[in-house]
Design brief:
Length: 75
């Protein structure tokens, strides 16, 4: 069985909960036969319109990727 997790990482609900969702799935389905695939939309480098990006727009994406990397590495 494969779980597909879709989210955006520009801030808000997606970047704030993706690590929690993956952790909960792994707790509920610890067997190695269950795969988790994440489809994460990264923040645009130059968002249009420019006022779309608030002060943490890019930082949220970076933080979420860092946390997912740590989770995958088991730290």
């Amino acid at each position: 069985m494969t779980f597909h997790v879709c989210c955006g990482l520009a801030g808000g609900t997606g970047s704030g909960t993706v690590v929690d969702v993956v952790s909960q799935l792994r707790d509920l389905y610890p067997h190695e036969g269950y795969r988790i695939i994440i489809y994460a939309f990264l923040p645009e480098e130059y968002p249009h319109p420019p006022n779309k990006a608030k002060e943490n727009y890019h930082a949220n994406g970076y933080a979420a990727l860092t946390e997912l990397n740590a989770l995958a590495a088991g730290t």
